[in-house]
Amino acid sequence: MSTPELIGRDDELVEEISAPDAEVIVGRSPWQLFWVRFREDKVALASLGVIGLIVLIAIFAPLIVKAIAHPPSAEYPQALDPRFGTPSGPSTTFFFGVDKVGEDVFSRVLYGARVSLEVALISTAIAVAVGVVMGMIAGFYRGVTDTLISRFIDVMLAFPVLLLAMGIASACSFGNGCLHGLIQPGVPTVVAVIAIINWTYIARIIRGQVMSLREKEFVEAARASGAGDIAILFREILPNLVAPIIVYTTLVIPQNILLEAALSYLGVGIGIQQASWGQMLADATPIFNTAWWYFVFPGAALLITVLAFNLLGDGIRDALDPRTVEVT
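RESULT FIELD:
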């Protein structure tokens, strides 16, 4: 079409461009691309729904127990088998049966969700915060700073995780705890133990990422504009670490849930005064052949929670992977 033919046809051109069958190219941000990919993962969406339900149960456990169950620490000897004094199974009064002292297993499973999520989320947040800061410092400054931090991480990783956790938990589980009472026995001790152990893993991941990012052009531009080290670390480099931090966080939460359960199972985690899935499994092991419900229900709750977090973490990792083909 020649130039003279375009004169006086502006309306027709606008209509042609805005026609319904015209192809419009719309740019998407990285987070929009993440959401498009994540929505296509039905398993991850279902896992997110299960986690949301577990969180709601943990939050409203006192109200649920008050409405339809019994207090988790109350004992009901009349609920035991009248002939042998052994635990009785599920019934309309005790949905998940009772344990060997007559406590409501249903209530203890609900309150166990509160303990598991509280320990896992708080310890993961602390471990990620410490690991990100230490990894950024080591990767950015290199030299002696990197050597000292990296060698300390190597020493920490050389210890068997469970044995190290048991040693620290045992030392802080009696008396006034550790650090002159700063870390009290119970939940604070387990949170501190898990955070001390897990920050090293994220620190190594972040260190490797920062070593690559510090050589990028946008860092050089920020340094040329007069930005200081703190500004470069937290304004330029940290935003580019959001994706690996999110992926690591979602994948380490179920590991921390299992670690808390393992410590409670071995008797150095949450005390008997609080309901814990690991403690319930430990109590149920000797009587599993006669009181299967006391083992199955807390075990199933632990399995479902950990599996849901693992599947959600896998879905988030796949959705954040830049090599994933964009879904239209």
